Each structure stands twice: as structure tokens, then as C-alpha cells.
Amino acid sequence: MTKTLERNEAKISEFERLLNESFSYSFKAADLVKGTIVKIDNKEILVDIGAKSEAILPLREVSKADLEPETGLKVGDEREFLILKEEDEDGVITLSLKRVSLAQNWEKLDQARQNNETITVTVAALVKGGVVVEVMDLRGFIPSSQLRTGTPFEGLIGKELEVKVIESDPKKNKLILSQRLALAEQREQIVEDVINNLEVDQEVEGQVVRIADFGAFVDINGVDGLLPISEISWQRIKHPSDVLQLGKTIKVRILKIDSDLNRISLSLKRMGENPWTKIEGQFKEGQVVTGEVNKITSFGVFINIFPGVEALLPAAEMGEGQINPYNVVNVGDEIEVLIKRFTPQEHRIGLSLKDVEAAKRGEYVPSPEPEAEKQPEEITE
Predict the structure, then answer these.
(1) Among 6, 28, 292, 309, which residue's beta carbon has the most beta carbons within 10 A?
(2) Nearest to 225 by CA among 185, 198, 186
(3) Structural domains in the chain plus CATH codes
(4) Which tens digit of pLDDT belongs to each residue from 206-216?
(5) What is the largest CA-CA distance in the chain?
(6) pLDDT digits (tens, 9 = 90+) for 245-286
(7) How buried is residue 213: exposed, middle or buried, by Cβ count under 10 Å (0-12/13-18/19+)?
(8) How far is residue 273's CA from residue 286's CA, in Å, rounded to a whole number?
(9) Could you tell me which of 293, 275, 286 has the C-alpha nearest to residue 350?
(10) 3-class secondary structure, 52
């Protein structure tokens, strides 16, 4: 009986030795291991990695794509995991799948940078100096200088953009991207075809993609055309943003096509009738009209006397002696003025304030027009 017990104890001891040897592999933090999904619930995922007990994969350590009901993880799937924590006192090992995917995604992005490939990203937020985008479960940054618009705007949020990778550094968690580089490459491929299918005086639709002090750029079938500030409105405007908004679609007329330089010049104001042609016959010299002060300068005041038509009231016509226009009127004031010179064909109207009362009494006598009346350069269209 004793010998039988001894033999049984020896067998048990040998079994324990073999069992322990089967788990002799050392699972260390930061190691990569292969495993099989054995259970998925709404709190965690259990994975068989060949340890004494099943390892835990927290849901926070799984990427969004792997949590999708239709295309995500399934029981029986074999994957490579990163060990986040070694065995705890209960013998449980904690894993991460997301960090393996992120490492692989950093590698893919760096390959895209080296191969000068174009990738697609989604704008997540506007921040100071640019926009934050999402790509492959990572966040990247497009500086304002690398945006097509040059300036971030609310309409970009949620939009997909094609970009080039400028810098990819997983150690610093730094991903810098450029939309302008991607667009420059595309433009080289399509610009000739687009321009060859356009004609001067053609009306086209385009999206406002950039606004500058001197005008705006409008995307015409993938090619940026220049809309100068002088061609935005018949009325004087201080800045293109007074009329235009980034991301908005507008109709414009093609003014000029330079096939050698692959440039397009556009006009917005010529989509409507020239207001200067409308006023012929409606106004005449010696007539008193009411207008609104649009701009004040040291040499005079610009006054709107008809939608889209601006006339000049020189400082010398505002009163006797030396006049400072800033002390006489304010922007937005409505005042009565006399039309002293009326040459709509030249887009010029000269006004007078000091002769208004005489004109009302019927005592105004037009003075002879100078042989060469020079207008300030600022009012020349």
C-alpha cells in the first residue's frame, strides 16, 4: 500500500513538473505575443496566449476599427498583442492590441513619407496655427501655411483632405502633414486639360479656397483661378472677406487665360450688369443727390450715390479754406451733394458739398472744366 502511494505521488510530482514546464515561457511587459480571441463581452476581451490563464484585453486597448460589429474582432481570430502588464497576483496578464496597430500605422505613415505618397485624413478640430486631423487611429497636424485655404475655417471640420506626410516621429508623437503639396502634385497632372477646356468670358462655378488682401483664389475644376479685389464688386470694398467666405461656391466669369503660365483670371462683379451703364441718363451735372459716405481720406470722401457706383467729394469742395474731411463727415453718414462732374464712361463722378445750397436756390453756376483735371490714383479702377 505504501509503495502504491509512493508511486502515485511520484506520478503527480512528474505531472506538476511537466505542467510547470509548459508554462515556463516568461511573459514580460513590452513583449509581443501571438494569441487567439476566446471571449468578447462589453467590458473586456479574453485572449489565449499560452499562459496559465487567459490574458485580458481591455476595450480601451482596442482600436475603433477592431470594435466595429461587422468588421471587427471575432472569437477565434488570431492576432499579435503587446504585453502591457505582466502577471498580477491572480496570474492575469494585460494586453494591448491598439498599440500594436499604432506602431504598424506609424510605420505605414513613414513609408508614405519616404515614397511621397498621398494619404486621406479627416479634419477633427481647428486649433491655433492650423487643423488637427485623424488618420489610422492617430492624430496629425496641418499648419495653416500647408492648408490650401491658408486659414482654418469651421467648414473644414469633418472634411476629408488629401495630404502628404512632411514629418513622422512616433517617439515624439509628431505627425506633420501638407495639403498644399498634395494639391500641387494633382494640379500638375490636370491643369493643362482644365485650361484647354475653358474660354474667355465663360461663366463657371468654383469654390473659394483662399482669401488674401489682394483678392481670392477660386477652385475651378481643380485649378485655382485668381479673383482680384478689383473684380469682386463694382463697389469699393476694404477686404475680399467683406464679400466672400471660405468654402462657399460662387459663379464667376473668366476674364483671361494665360496658357503659357497656366493661370486663370476671374471676375465676380461682371456676372451682373455694370452699374455705371445703368446711371447714364439718371444723373446729370448740377443735380443734387443723397449719398452714403463709404470711405474718408485726407484728400476727400468717397460716397455711394447708386448701388455699385462711388463718387468722389474732394476736400476742396467740402467748404471754404483748408478742410479736414475727417472733421466733417463719418463713414455711414447720409449727405446731400451736388454732381459737379459726370463722366460715367470713365467711371468718374466729381461731387461738391459747398455748392449744394446754391444749387437748391437755383443760383449754382457750373465752373469751366479744367483742361486736365487729375484724379487721385486711389480712385482709378
Answers:
(1) 309
(2) 198
(3) 35-96 (2.40.50.140), 115-181 (2.40.50.140), 198-271 (2.40.50.140), 275-379 (2.40.50.140)
(4) 999 999 999 99
(5) 145
(6) 999 999 999 999 988 888 899 999 999 888 888 888 889 999
(7) exposed
(8) 26
(9) 286
(10) coil
